Amino acid sequence: MWGGGIYDGKSVKTSSDAGIQCIWISYCCYSDDLAGWHYSRQLAFFLSTTSTLCRDSDTAGKCALLAHNTNTPAVTGTLFPRSGAWRYTSILPANDPLSIAHQISTKVVKLQGTVSDEPRLAGRTRILKVAVDKIATTSTSTWQTVHGTIEVQISGTSIEDAYGANYGDSLTLQGKLAAPQAHGPADVLAQMTFPHVTVIGHGGNPLMVWLFHWRIHFATLLEQLLPQPTAALLIAIVLGLRTPQLEPLTQAFNVTGTAHLIAPSGFKVTIVARLIISCTSWLYTGRLADFWPGSRRRIWQRWLSTAIVLSCIGAYTILSGAGAAAIRSGIMGSLLVLAPRLGRTYNIYTALAFTALGMSLLDPLVLWDTGFQLSFLGTLGIVLFTPQIQQWLHPLCRLPGGHFLAETCAVTLAAQLATLPIFALTFQQVSFIAPIANMLTVPLLGIVITLGLLLCGLGLLSLTIGAICSWLIWPLLWFMSQSILVCAALPGAYLSVPTLDSRLAWLYYLSLSLLCYFLLTRSSWHTKVYKQHTPRKLLSKKARRLLYAAIAVVIILTTGIATLHSQATGTISITFLRVGPSGKPAQGEAIFIRTADGKTVLIDGGLDVPSLAQALDARLPSWQRSLDVVVLTVPRTDHLLGLQDVVTRYQVGTVIDGGMLHPSAMYAHWRQTIQEQHFSYQPVARGQTLSVGKDTLLQIIWPEAQLHVSNNVQDNTLIIRLIAPGIRLLLLGTAAQSQYTLSQLTSQSTDSSWQADIVQIVADGNQPILKELVPLVQRANPSLLIVTPPSIRLKKQTSSSTQIKLPDALSHIPSLSTIKAGAIEITGNIQGWKVASP
User: Fold this and answer.
1) pTM to 2 decimals?
2) Of 819, 766, 770, 820, nearest to 797 (Cα)?
3) How many whole angstroms separate alpha carbon 371 and alpha carbon 362?
4) Residue 191 is inside which H or E element, if any?
C-alpha cells in the first residue's frame, strides 16, 4: 500500500544514486524459493544489477567484471550489465547530438512539439511537459530536427483548459530555453518560462485523452459534492490528482509518513480489483452459471471476468495519473489477477523484478523517479520485513485490538525502513509519528476508496443522489485530515535533515542488505510469522453489514434533518474574507453575506482559489453546496479568478455582473461556465434594486446601462448599496481607484442615496487615496471604513504596506483592513450592528 512521494505537487529525482535500487532487485529476481538461494549467485546478481543501474559505463564495466569473477554464468555476468549500461548511456544527452539540451542559450528560439503528459498546476501557473521535435531561430524559418522533453510554464489555474494547451495538443513555442530545475524530473532536459504558445493541432492517444478528460470530470464532480479541503483529499486518494486545495495538507502528509495515502499504490489497485471481481462474480457463480453448465463455458466466463478486471485496472492506472508509481501498481495488480488464470502461483518478488525490468527497459530514467523508488522499495520492504517486525511485536496481540495494532505498526515500520534514505534526501525530514498516524488513517482507506468510487458513479447519474452519498464519506475524510494535522503538529513528530550526505544512503542500504541476508538465512522465520493465529472476529459478516447499514442510515437521517432545519437566525452576517496565498499578504476582495433569513451571497472571489475555497466552505455547513446569489463587481483577475472556481463547484441561484465592453478570455470562460451550468444570469445597471430574501436589498448605483468606453475596467465597476434591518453598507470596491467613476458620481448622486453606516473601498498603502473619493465618503458619513487590498500591483513594488494613509478629511473615521486584521465579520439586526470578535 506504499506509494509515491510528494514534492511541490510533482515527482522529483533524489540526489542519491539510483544504484541503491539494485540491492533490492538482486534479492527478488533470482529465485522463487527464498530458503534455497545460493548466496554466491545473490552476490553476483547484485553486482550485475549494480552495473546495469550505474550512471557511467566505466563503473558498469568494473561491476560486470567482478560479477563475472564470482562464478556466475557469462550471460548474467556480462550480457545483462553491459546491455543495461548501453541502454542507459544511449539516452544520455551528451551522447545524442540532436538532444534539445544542446540548444540551451539566451537566444529566443521557436519550437514545435506535443504535450506528452497531463498538465499540472503550480500556484497560478500550468506546467506542460512537451516532447519537442523541431527547432528554429527567430531569424530564420528553417526547422531543424531535435528531440527531448522540456517543461513549459504558462499562466493558468485549471488542469484542463478549454482555451489553452492540453494533453496531445501540438504546439509552437517561442521563448528562451533554460536549464532544467535541479530537482526536476529526470527526463526533462530544458525548460521555458512563459513563452508565446500557439496550439496548432490536437492529437495524442485517443484512449489517454478520453481517460484524462474523465479524470478531470470526476474531480470536478467530487468538488461539487464535498467541501474543501476534504474534496481535495478524496480526489488525491481516489484519483491520485493533487489540486491546489490540497496544499495545506500536503506537508502534513509528508511529515507524518502518510504520503502513500494520497499517491498511487498497490493497495488501491487491489481494492479496485476486488470490487470488480465482486461485481463480475455472477458471470461464473449463481444462477447464471447453472443456466450455462459445462466446464468450458465456466472457463470462458472466468476469462471474461478476468478481462474486465484487467481493463478496469488499466483504466484506473491512467485515472491515477499514469505516473511511475501508478504504472508499477497497475502492472503488479494485473499479474496478481492474471496468474491464477494461467495456472501459475503469484510471487511478489518475481512480479517486482518483472515490473522493474520492463519499466526500466522502456525508460531507464524511471529509476531516478522518486515515486517509483518509494513505491518499489516500500512494497519490497513490506514483504521482506513485516513478518519479522510483526513477530517482535507479537506480545501486543494479547491486548484488545493488539493484533491490528501489531500488524499496522509492522507494515508502517517495514515500509519506513526500506524508504528512509529516500524520504530524508528528497523531503529532508524523518518522521517519528508515522506508526500512530498510519494506525489512525490506514484502516479507513478501503472504505474511503469504495465510497469515493461510488460517489463518482452516483454523481454522474444525479448530483442530488451523489450529495446524499457524500454525507457518508465526509465524516471519514474529516477524521483523516484532522488526524494528520494533529499528528504533524505534535512536538517531535519529525526531524528535519536539510544537509544529509547522500553517501549515508549507500551505507544505510548496505547495512540493510546485510540484515536482509541474515534474516533470509533463518529459513524458519518467514513461515513462522505467517502461521500466527488469526484472531477471531467479534462480529459475523452479516452482523457487520447490518452495523454498517445502521450507521449509514443514522448519518443520512441526521444530516437530512439538519438540511431541512432553517438557517434563519434573525441576524445578518457580512464577512470580508482574507484571500491570498498561504504565508503571503491578502490579495483581492471577497465578501460573504448571510442574510437574516438564511440566504447566501458572495460578492467577488479574490485571486487565490485555495484560500477562498477554504474560507467559504468553513462558513457553510458541510452539506450545503449552493449559493443564492453570486456577484462579480469588476472582471479583473483579482475578483474573477476565485469566482470561476465557485460557479464550477456550487449550485448558484442567480449570477450578477455589469457586463464587459470588450470581453477577455477569462470573462468569456466565466460566461460560458454560467451557461453550461444553466445558472440564471442577470446583467445589472444603475437604478436597479434586487431583493435577497425578505428584508435585504441590493441597490445598484453604478455603472450606467451604456458602459463607458475606457481602457480601465474599473471605470465600469459595480457599486452596490446593501440595505438590511439595522445596517447600511456601501461597497465602492475598485471604483475607489477610478477617477472617472468618482467624478461622475460626485456630480450625479444625492445625499439620500449615498448614506451608509459602513463604506468598503479597495486601496493600497503604497498608493495615495484619490482626492475625488473624499467628498463621496463624507456624503455617506460612515461610522467605519473597510479597506480590502488589490492584487495587481506595480512591477517595481516588492512589498505592500499594511497601513492605509487616509486623507486628513477622513482621518477621523475608524478603519479596518483585511491585510492587517484578517477576515472581518460584521453582524447586524434591527437593533444595530457591530464588528464581531475574531
Assistant:
1) 0.81
2) 766
3) 17
4) strand 188-193
